[in-house]
């Protein structure tokens, strides 16, 4: 039983260390890096109406060119009559 406990301790320590590193430290580092180097693009393409965020410029667009993929159905021109 002592051998198992001797091997379990480093495994638990490495699990916790990598969980903190990849789940907390890396995302915080990348968020800080992008916020400082590209502050205008870091928040995305948000639509603001009357000081309130109402959506994104890139979601639910009506694409008319056949070269584009179709966006998801949304309140912007979606008619479910045929289904």
What key attributes describe this structure?
83 residues, 43% helix, alpha+beta, single chain, elongated, 2 strands
Q: DSSP helix count?
A: 1
Distance between the termini: 63 Å
Give the low-pLDDT segments. none
Instruction: Give the helices and strands as they follow along the chain.
Output: HEE
Q: Let me know the number of strands.
A: 2
Strand arrangement across the biggest beta sheet: 1-2
Work out the radius of gyration: 23 Å
Query: Which range does the strand content fall in?
Result: 5-15%
| DSSP helix fraction | 40-55%
| Chain oligomer state | single chain
Q: What is the averaged pLDDT score?
A: 82
Largest sheet: 2 strands, antiparallel
Computed structural class: alpha+beta
Large-scale geometry: elongated
Describe the model.
The protein is an alpha+beta fold and 83 residues long. The protein has a domain at 2-56. 43% of the residues lie in helices and 11% in strands. The protein is built from one helix and two strands, in the order αββ. It has one helix at residues 2-37; strands at residues 46-49, 52-56. The protein has a two-stranded antiparallel sheet. The radius of gyration is 23 Å and the shape is elongated. The termini are far apart. The mean pLDDT is 82.
């Amino acid at each position: 039983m002592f051998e198992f406990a001797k091997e379990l301790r480093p495994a638990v320590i490495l699990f916790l260390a990598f969980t903190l590193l990849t789940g907390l430290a890396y995302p915080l580092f990348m968020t800080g890096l992008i916020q400082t180097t590209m502050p205008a693009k870091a928040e995305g393409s948000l639509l603001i109406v009357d000081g309130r965020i109402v959506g994104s410029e890139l979601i639910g667009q009506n694409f008319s060119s056949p070269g584009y993929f179709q966006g998801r159905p949304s309140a912007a021109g979606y008619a479910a009559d045929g289904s």
